[in-house]
Specification:
Elements (H helix, E strand, L loop, with lengths): L7 E2 H6 L1 H10 L4 H4 L16 E6 L9 E7 L2 E6 L21 H4 L2 H4 L9 E3 L8 E3 L2 H19 L4 E2 L16 H9 L5 E3 L5 H11 L17 E5 L3 H4 L6 H11 L3 E5 L12 E4 L6 H14 L5 H7 E2 L17 H6 L10 H8 L3 H13 L3 E5 L9 H15 L33 E3 L3 H6 L6 H4 L13 E5 L11 H9 L6 E6 L11 E4 L8 E4 L8 E5 L12 H11 L3 H5 L5 H15 L6 H7 L1 E3 L10 H5 L13 E2 L3 H9 L30 E7 L12 H6 L3 E4 L1 H6 L7 E5 L4 E8 L7 E6 L38 E7 L1
Parallel strand pairs: 7-15, 8-14, 9-10, 9-13, 10-11, 12-21, 15-16, 16-17, 22-26, 23-25
Antiparallel strand pairs: 1-2, 2-3, 3-4, 5-6, 5-17, 18-19, 19-20, 22-27, 23-26, 24-25, 24-27
Helix pairs in contact: 2-23, 6-20, 8-16, 11-14, 11-15, 11-16, 14-15
This protein binds ligand MGD (2 copies), iron/sulfur cluster and molybdenum atom.
Length: 810
């Protein structure tokens, strides 16, 4: 379908205002659609042929915000967002608009950047050097197809791999990286992966505690008047910024319901700066020590809900331990009171030395949590992205269990705030014939030392060990080869040895640091340059669908990934199967949509949807974690071995006995505190500071980080406390060197009390910029120059917030 037929011009709009309202009515839709192209939104000068084309964001912040692109002469002039009222006709504060953040609103400068990749290229320099030569699509595709075939025939499917890639989020939007997955499936399978860089450690914590890897609990709609939210390692104001994101809902709850918030975070995040909110600074990586001391206060003051613990949980005390653990003082209560394996009572005084939170504040927090009824205890992913993240995550979950604050309105089970929305089907990936999987973070090990990748050492599943190293990588919309993975300098060594990973193809829109390590580079079209349809499952407060149309004709030789994979399938003799008899991208979108609409008949037709741009169904309701289980645990058991909440996990006890873990790593069956590697305990004169990353408003990982105008609004700077800065003669705005055993970055210092003393905070996602064949000093300030590839003990995941190092004036 040509975009001209699907977009309204300013002139035709003026003539057909009534018709727009009619689309909404025809679809039985809400008032929202009618205002989507609202005349009031257009500036007075726009009287020429300006079109408004609707599309949406697809980066991995997953809010899928609406972009109303004002297009003239094949160019986006500006991006507006959702200005429509909600289903009730209201635009009052707190109502669901799919409003884009600063990144989405300035996206035209990103989409239309002169730096976009426009032609297929092959590498002519060394890997990582960034030297490429333009080639034809035929040559590019012939090379990729023949390399895929060669590697498959020589080494088998375990040698073929897709790293985590989240530049175009799949599953929720219609395509994501699924076309590549399907291609590798229909040609014989590939090495799978489990877990994510986002919450791989917490997934395991959830599995051993609640019997499922899902990391979400209640949503914020359940918050009650005047109640207390206690959040660990979470900042929706930084990470869920879209209009439908949880930052907006939390702001609403604070202002309209007088909800109080306590943010436990080493850094005063944007969430911690808001009204009705208190910041409790905690030394990074030590939340489990705080939780243990809170548990000590709760238990010794008689505030523990013994009835709840006996009915729903395993292993709080001796009586509820599984048989295998009885008689060994192995219960959680024993651990807390000092009769457990380490014979240390977890008093506030004990925790204060570790967490650096004053003893009295810990006691007061325990009392506040006891007195608040309900209390909503939750965590983001910040506290688990550490070398001891699995146990930390479980330690946070134990607090609402102790207090019996689960399963009723206003409560949560210690996981992240949830979201509800439409989730449509997406492009089918087919079935992977290769059942072997590795933890997502372990791919460099699987290239470098596949012999070490076993079940008990490397977390391999589906096989006892890998039969080969990874030899072929298809990197689609990901910057995890270097920029986003641990220890860039180490990865450089691994990838530059071409005898190890023999072939890397990347589909990108920019020459990223990862792209520089590719043998073939394919210039992709973005979602906004193609037809797409997205549900809003991450919108916490709205069910909506956006019908994205190409904003302009595809310029240069950029090509969409689906069409590219079709061409590769043809070269590999599987085109018919791959394309399901020749379906186009639009055919597939329509198919997902029609199938979904068959179950949700209130939705507009595909054609009406396109005319409307977006369909909104208004607010979703409250969601209360574990509600069914709490109401009737016998009828609705959890999927844990015991069917109950496992404070003590027999499965973890077994892992502790059978897995080969690195020295200093600990796996314990109860949610205990262990410092982990690269923690405060490892600080030395050489490396006296804890360096920690965070997810920053200027970019989503490395996506949008090359959009200069956003970086000007929110600088990429290292936060450092005035005490630490003063000791080093560092002033605000100075360029500093941040370094450790892994490497060195240069970055501007921001001297601020929002940084806890003893810490340096560097936003993750900046573009790595180093001469990798020279001094390797990173002038881009990319935190993964300083991170490690050592995995966490249970998930074998990325503890990328656990870093130690030093700072000096450059
Ligand atoms: N603007 C923006 N939004 C994003 C993203 C982005 O890059 N930019 N990324 C998206 C993605 S893919 C994800 S996975 C999520 C990530 O969401 P999160 O993982 O939750 O984000 P982080 O910033 O890593 O961590 C949240 C907070 O935890 C704090 N923190 C770190 N370590 C500790 C600790 O040991 N203890 C405690 N108590 N707090 C700690 C950090 O300082 C931060 O304020 O965000 C999503 N949203
Ligand atoms: N130290 C540290 N490292 C981290 C984290 C951390 O907190 N600290 N966070 C981790 C987390 S939670 C995550 S999810 C990962 C994210 O890491 P990645 O999944 O690599 O995410 P991005 O860095 O955004 O890279 C996405 C790439 O997709 C490209 N892209 C965007 N749109 C398109 C498109 O339409 N087509 C194509 N072909 N390409 C496109 C962008 O240019 C960008 O290079 O990073 C992880 N790395
Ligand atoms: S980056 Fe996230 S909040 Fe911003 S426009 Fe995109 S989806 Fe929305
Ligand atoms: Mo993530």
């Amino acid at each position: 379908m040509s975009k001209a037929s699907t977009s309204l011009t300013r002139r035709s709009f003026v003539k057909t205002t009534g018709a727009v309202g009619a689309f909404a009515a025809a679809a039985g839709a809400t008032a929202t659609a009618g205002d989507l192209f609202g005349a009031g939104a257009l500036p007075a000068h726009a009287d020429s042929e300006e079109k408004v084309v609707c599309t949406h964001c697809t980066v991995n912040c997953m809010s899928f915000c609406l972009w109303k692109c004002h297009v003239q002469d094949g160019e986006i002039k500006y991006v507006e967002s959702d200005t429509a009222p909600d289903a009730t006709g209201s635009t009052a504060f707190g109502d669901p608009q799919m409003r884009a953040c600063l990144r989405g609103r300035s996206s035209r400068r990103w989409l239309q950047s002169a730096d976009r990749l426009n032609y297929p290229m092959k590498r002519v320099g060394k890997r990582g050097e960034g030297k490429f030569e333009r080639i034809s699509w035929d040559e590019a595709l012939d090379t990729v197809a023949s390399e895929l075939k060669r590697v498959r025939e020589t080494y088998g499917p375990e040698a073929i791999y897709i790293p985590q890639c989240s530049g175009v989020v799949g599953g929720l939007s219609s395509f994501g990286s699924n076309p590549v997955t399907r291609l590798l499936n229909v040609t014989g399978g590939f090495l799978g992966k489990y877990g994510t860089y986002s919450n791989g450690l917490m997934m395991q914590a959830c599995k051993y505690t609640y019997g499922e890897t899902g990391c979400y609990g209640s949503n914020y709609w359940t918050l009650q008047d005047g109640e207390l939210v206690v959040m660990f390692g979470n900042s929706p104001a930084d990470t869920r910024m879209g209009g439908t994101g949880s930052a907006n809902l939390l702001a609403y709850a604070r202002q309209k319901k007088n909800v109080r918030v306590i943010c436990i975070d080493p850094r005063q995040s944007d969430t911690a700066c808001a009204s009705n909110t208190e910041w409790i600074p905690i030394r990074t990586g030590t939340d489990a020590a705080l939780c243990s001391a809170l548990a000590y206060e709760i238990i010794t003051n008689g505030w523990a809900d013994e009835e709840f613990l006996a009915k729903y949980c395993i292993g709080y005390n001796e009586e509820t331990l599984p048989e295998s653990a009885k008689g060994k003082n192995a219960s959680y209560k024993d651990y807390i009171l000092g009769t457990g394996y380490d014979k240390t009572p977890k008093t506030p005084a004990w925790a204060s030395k570790i967490t650096l939170i004053p003893e009295q504040r810990i006691k007061d927090l325990a009392r506040q949590m006891h007195e608040a009824d309900p209390v909503f205890v939750q965590q983001g992913y910040g506290s688990q992205r550490h070398s001891n993240g699995e146990m930390t995550s479980r330690a946070i979950m134990v607090l609402p269990q102790l207090l019996g604050q689960i399963g009723k309105p206003g409560t949560n089970d210690g996981r992240r705030e949830n979201k509800i929305g439409f989730s449509m089907g997406s492009f089918p990936t087919g079935t992977n014939k290769c059942k072997t999987q590795i933890p997502t973070f372990m791919w460099t090990k699987a290239i470098d030392a596949p012999e070490e990748m076993t079940k008990t050492k490397g977390g391999v599943t589906g096989a006892d060990k890998l039969s080969t190293g990874i030899k072929f990588i298809f990197n689609y919309a990901g910057n995890c080869l270097t920029n986003q993975h641990g220890d860039i300098n180490r990865t450089h060594e691994i990838l530059s040895d071409e005898s190890k990973c023999e072939f890397i193809v990347t589909s990108e829109i920019f020459m990223t640091d990862s792209a520089k390590y590719s043998d073939i580079l394919l210039p992709d079209l973005t979602t906004q340059e193609q037809v797409s349809v997205a549900g809003q499952p991450y919108g916490d407060n709205v069910k909506a669908i956006i019908y994205g149309q190409p904003v302009y004709d595809a310029p240069y030789e950029r090509r969409g990934i689906y069409e590219v994979c079709c061409d590769l399938a043809e070269r590999l003799g599987v085109y018919d199967e791959y394309s399901d008899g020749g379906k186009s991208r639009e055919d597939w979108n329509r198919k997902f949509y029609d199938e979904f609409r068959a179950k949700q008949p209130q939705l507009p037709t595909w054609e009406d949807g396109i005319k409307m741009g977006a369909y909104k169904e208004g607010r979703v309701g409250e969601l209360i974690a574990l509600q069914k289980f709490i109401a009737d645990p016998e009828a609705n058991p959890l999927k844990t071995p015991s069917g109950k909440i496992e404070i003590y996990s027999e499965q973890l006890a077994k892992l502790a006995d059978t897995w080969e873990i690195a020295e200093g790593d600990e796996i314990l069956p109860i949610p205990a505190f262990a410092p982990g590697f690269d923690s405060y305990r490892d600080l030395s004169d050489e490396y006296p500071l804890q360096i920690q990353g965070f997810h920053y408003k200027a970019h989503v990982h490395s996506s949008y980080a090359n959009n200069q105008i956003v970086q000007e609004a929110a600088h990429h700077v290292a936060w450092i406390n005035p005490i630490d800065a003063g000791e080093r003669g560092i002033a605000n705005g100075d360029t500093v060197r941040v370094f450790n055993e892994h490497g060195e970055v240069r970055i501007e210092a921001k001297v601020t009390n929002r940084a806890m003393p003893g810490h340096v905070f560097i936003p993750q996602g900046a573009w790595h910029n180093a001469d990798m064949f020279g001094d390797k000093v990173d002038k881009g300030g990319c935190i993964n120059t300083l991170t490690s590839q050592r995995p966490s003990p249970i998930a074998k995941g990325n503890g990328q917030h656990s870093i130690i190092g030093q700072v000096a004036k450059a």
